[in-house]
Amino acid sequence: MAKRKIYLENIPLSEALDKWWRRLKEAGLDKPLTGEKIVVDDSLGRVTAEAVSAKISSPFYHASAMDGYAVKFADTFGASETKPKRLKIGEKAIYMDTGDPMPEGFDAVIMIEDVNIIKGQGARGKGQDEFIEIIEPATPWQHVRTIGEDIVATELILPENHIIRPVDIGALLGGGITEIMVRRRPKVVIIPTGTEIVEPGTELKKGNIIEYNSRILSGLVSEWGGEPLRMLPVPDDYEKIKNATLQAIETGDIVVINAGASAGSEDFTASVIADIGEVFVHGINIKPGKPVILGIFDKKPIIGIPGYPVSAYLTFNIFIKPLIYKWLGRGIAPPERLKAKLSRQVASPLGQEEFLRVKLGEVGERLIATPISRGAGILMSLVRADGIVRISAQSEGLAAGSEVEVELLRQKADILNTIVCIGSHDNTLDLLANYLKKRYPMISLSSAHVGSMGGLMALKRGEAHLTGTHLLDEETGEYNIPFLRRLLTEKKIVLVNLIYREQGLLVPRGNPKGIKGFEDLKRDDVIFINRQAGSGTRLLTDKSLKELGIELREVKGYDHEEYTHMGVASAVLSGIADTGLAILSSAVALDLDFIPVAKERYDLAIPEEFYNSEMIRQLLDIIRDDEEFRSHVLALGGYDISDMGKVIYKG
Amino acid sequence: MAKRKIYLENIPLSEALDKWWRRLKEAGLDKPLTGEKIVVDDSLGRVTAEAVSAKISSPFYHASAMDGYAVKFADTFGASETKPKRLKIGEKAIYMDTGDPMPEGFDAVIMIEDVNIIKGQGARGKGQDEFIEIIEPATPWQHVRTIGEDIVATELILPENHIIRPVDIGALLGGGITEIMVRRRPKVVIIPTGTEIVEPGTELKKGNIIEYNSRILSGLVSEWGGEPLRMLPVPDDYEKIKNATLQAIETGDIVVINAGASAGSEDFTASVIADIGEVFVHGINIKPGKPVILGIFDKKPIIGIPGYPVSAYLTFNIFIKPLIYKWLGRGIAPPERLKAKLSRQVASPLGQEEFLRVKLGEVGERLIATPISRGAGILMSLVRADGIVRISAQSEGLAAGSEVEVELLRQKADILNTIVCIGSHDNTLDLLANYLKKRYPMISLSSAHVGSMGGLMALKRGEAHLTGTHLLDEETGEYNIPFLRRLLTEKKIVLVNLIYREQGLLVPRGNPKGIKGFEDLKRDDVIFINRQAGSGTRLLTDKSLKELGIELREVKGYDHEEYTHMGVASAVLSGIADTGLAILSSAVALDLDFIPVAKERYDLAIPEEFYNSEMIRQLLDIIRDDEEFRSHVLALGGYDISDMGKVIYKG
Question: Choosing a second label site near A205 at 20 to 30 A (CA), which of A138, A509, A520, B420?
Answer without folding.
Answer: A509
